[in-house]
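Aim 2 progress update. The chain analyzed this quarter is reproduced below.
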Amino acid sequence: MIRELKTLIAVAQHGTFAAAGQHIGLTQAAVSAQMKRLEAALGVALFERSGRAAVLTKRGQETLQQAQALIALYGTLGAASAGQEAATRVNLGAIASIQRSLLPNVLAHFHRQFPECRSRVVPGLSLALMNQVDAGELDMAVIIRPPFSLHSDLRWQPLAHEPFRLLVRRRLTTDDWRALLTQQPFVRYDRASFGGRQVDRFLRDNHCHVRDVCEVDELDAIIQLVANGVGVALVPQPSALRRWPAGVRAIDLKEHTFHRDIG
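Predicted structure tokens:
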């Protein structure tokens, strides 16, 4: 119900199901389905069924005010009152590449500063982790910035701006990235991830037709596949990386470089 109430607030803010969906990362159909479930659960019609604009009925307006109050109250659940000790455990989501690079040092600093606290790290893909934060299952998550606006009650704190490189086996001497993408087998960054969608968009925008040989989400696995001669790959250069493994080299995409934002 909390998710449906948040979506109702987004629809009221943005005026249509489609616009609300763009801002919270749902399709128009998903927004419509959530609103139908909410109407069925409450037993009232929330919207006027005419035209494309989402016009609230009188009961819908009353429900919106109640939803805003409930969501504000929901956000305070579990919060420590004045003089009460801080929470003892922080639930943190993190994509795999961050768990191996930035996260250990950050957690070490956190536990030195707050020795009374415990932490729990939950792995996952960016979209799933973001949804867990939105649902209140995680306190925060380190993810790739999504290609859509975050829900109004989520806040983005930038941590890293990582350029994508074309990773090839070291014995391939040419720096012509277009030719390499066209002629060599392609190890694809999983399209279910935000980073993989960026790669897919780059290939489309630059009219690069690749021959997929493998699709993987783990960056370390992609790098090893390239080193073993399976193919070439477009991967982000982690901010904590000092040097690429000996068997590969990274080609700069120059003015075509795109980035993934971590936060």
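The CA atoms of residues 83 and 230 lie 59 Å apart. Residues 82-86 have pLDDT under 50 and may be disordered. These observations will guide the mutagenesis experiments scheduled for the next reporting period.
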